[in-house]
C-alpha cells in the first residue's frame, strides 16, 4: 500500500530568479488556456509537441502544459462543454525527471537570456522536526511552483509506502470547538488535545483587527490578516493531528475512529456566540490531517455514524442530554461529555462497513 501527499517548501529565489519565475508562471497558464481554446474550437485533442509551442518556456514545461491542457479538455468534453475551465492562477509544473534537490536548493530548468538553463534556487527544505527531510527520501512526483502572499512555494508530491497494522486496538476521537479533540482508547486511556479557549480568543482578535482595518479601508491589510489567520488555523490542526497520532502510537492503536463530517456543523454543540467559530473552523481539514498522518504510521482511520454519540450512556445505552460540560446518566455513570462522545465513537457503526472489531 502507498499514500501520496504534498510537501510544501519555501523558496528563496534571487530578484532575477523571482522575475523569471513570475514571467514563466503567467506564460505557462496562458499557454494551457490557448491550447484548451484550440481543442474546444476543433473539438479534438491537440497533436502538438513542444516544437509547435511558441512560448518562452523550457521544453519540459511546454510538454507539461500540453499534458495539462489535454486533461482539462478531456474533462470539458466529458461534460459536453457545459463548463470549459479558464485557468487563472499563475504557476509552473515540472515532472520528476526535470528537477533535483540537495536539501539546500532545488535545481530546475528556467529561461535565462532566452534559453533554458538548469538553475539552483535556494529552498528551505527542512522544517523544525525534520519531517520534510524524511518525506523527501521517498518517491517524488511533480513539482509545482506558485507565489502566495509574496512568497514563493514549491509543492512536491511524494508517494510513501505504508504498512497497515495487524492489531485490533481501537481509539475513538471526538472533534469539537470548546475542546478541539478528545481521544479515548479501548482500555479507557483519555487525552484532551488543543485549547478551545485560546483558539476562540485568537479568532476574535483577528476579526477585531480586521474590523478596525475595515474602518480605515485598508483592503490589503485585511487580506493579509485573513491569510495569517488561515495559516495559524492550519498550524493548529497540524499540531493537534500530530499529537493524536503520537498518542495512538504510544498506546499501540491500530484503528482510529472519527465522526463522519457530513453533518458536523448541524450536530456540533454550540451557542450563538460560537456560531462564527463553528462555520469558519475546518473540521474536515483536521480529520484529513489525522488520516494521512495515521496512515503513514500504519494506523487505519475509519469514519462512523455520529448519531447520538454524545447522548448515549456507554454503560447502559440510555440517552441523556449533558448539562453544561458534564454528562450524567440515571444509572449513575458520569463523565465529561466530550469523553462520552469519544467513547461511543469507538463502537459506533462504521460508514460503509469493513470495520475492525473493537
Report what the structure shows.
The protein has 358 residues and is of the alpha+beta class. It folds into 2 domains: 160 residues, no CATH class; 178 residues, Nucleotidyltransferase, domain 5, CATH 3.30.420. It is built from 9 helices and 14 strands. The radius of gyration is 25 Å and the shape is elongated. About 3% of the residues have low confidence. It comes from Anoxybacillus andreesenii. It holds the Pfam family Cas12f1-like_TNB. This is IS605 OrfB family transposase. Keywords: DNA-binding.
- Which percent band covers the strand fraction? 15-25%
Helical fraction:
25-40%
Report the oligomer.
single chain
Would you tell me the structural class of the helices and strands? alpha+beta
Order of strands in the sheet with the most strands? 2-6-7-1-5-4-3
Mean pLDDT: 86
Count of helix runs: 9
First-residue to last-residue Cα separation:
23 Å
Domain module count: 2
Q: What is the CA-atom radius of gyration, in angstroms?
A: 25 Å
Largest sheet: 7 strands, antiparallel
Question: What is the top-level CATH class of the largest domain?
Answer: Alpha Beta
Kindly list the characteristics that best describe this protein.
single chain; 358 residues; alpha+beta; Nucleotidyltransferase, domain 5; 2 domains; 7-stranded antiparallel beta sheet; 5-stranded mixed beta sheet; 9 helices; 14 strands; 24% strand; elongated
Amino acid at each position: 500500500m502507498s499514500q501520496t501527499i504534498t510537501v510544501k517548501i519555501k523558496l528563496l529565489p534571487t530578484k532575477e530568479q523571482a522575475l523569471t519565475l513570475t514571467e514563466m508562471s503567467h506564460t505557462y497558464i496562458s499557454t494551457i488556456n490557448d491550447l484548451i481554446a484550440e481543442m474546444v474550437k476543433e473539438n479534438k485533442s491537440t497533436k502538438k509537441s513542444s516544437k509547435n509551442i511558441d512560448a518562452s518556456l523550457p521544453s519540459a514545461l511546454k510538454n507539461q502544459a500540453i499534458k495539462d491542457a489535454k486533461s482539462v479538455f478531456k474533462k470539458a468534453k466529458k461534460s459536453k462543454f457545459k463548463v470549459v475551465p479558464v485557468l487563472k492562477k499563475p504557476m509552473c509544473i515540472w515532472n520528476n525527471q526535470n528537477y533535483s534537490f540537495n536539501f539546500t536548493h532545488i535545481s530546475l530548468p528556467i529561461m535565462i537570456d532566452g534559453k533554458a538553463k538548469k538553475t539552483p534556487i535556494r529552498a528551505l527544505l527542512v522544517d523544525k522536526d525534520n519531517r520534510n527531510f524524511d518525506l523527501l527520501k521517498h518517491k517524488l512526483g511533480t513539482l509545482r511552483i506558485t507565489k502566495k502572499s509574496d512568497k514563493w512555494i514549491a509543492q512536491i508530491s511524494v508517494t510513501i509506502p505504508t504498512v497497515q497494522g495487524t492489531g485490533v486496538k481501537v481509539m475513538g476521537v471526538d472533534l469539537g470547538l470548546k475542546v478541539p479533540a478528545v481521544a479515548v482508547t479501548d482500555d479507557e486511556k483519555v487525552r484532551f488535545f488543543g485549547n478551545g479557549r485560546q483558539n476562540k480568543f485568537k479568532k476574535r482578535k483577528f476579526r477585531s483587527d480586521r474590523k478596525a482595518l475595515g474602518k480605515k479601508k485598508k483592503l490589503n491589510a485585511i487580506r493579509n490578516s485573513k491569510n495569517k489567520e488561515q495559516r495559524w488555523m492550519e498550524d493548529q490542526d497540524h499540531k493537534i493531528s500530530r499529537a493524536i497520532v503520537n498518542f495512538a502510537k504510544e498506546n499501540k492503536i491500530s484503528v482510529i475512529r472519527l465522526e463522519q463530517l457530513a453533518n458536523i456543523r448541524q450536530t456540533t454543540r454550540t451557542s450563538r456566540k460560537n456560531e462564527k467559530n463553528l462555520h469558519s473552523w475546518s473540521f474536515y481539514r483536521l480529520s484529513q490531517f489525522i488520516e494521512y498522518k495515521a496512515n503513514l504510521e500504519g494506523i487505519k482511520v475509519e469514519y462512523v455514524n455520529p448519531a447520538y454519540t454524545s447522548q448515549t450512556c456507554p454503560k447502559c445505552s440510555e440517552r441523556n442530554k449533558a448539562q453544561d460540560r458534564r454528562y450524567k446518566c440515571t444509572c449513575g455513570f458520569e463523565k465529561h461529555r466530550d469523553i462520552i462522545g469519544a467513547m461511543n465513537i469507538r463502537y459506533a457503526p462504521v460508514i460503509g462497513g469493513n470495520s475492525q472489531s473493537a
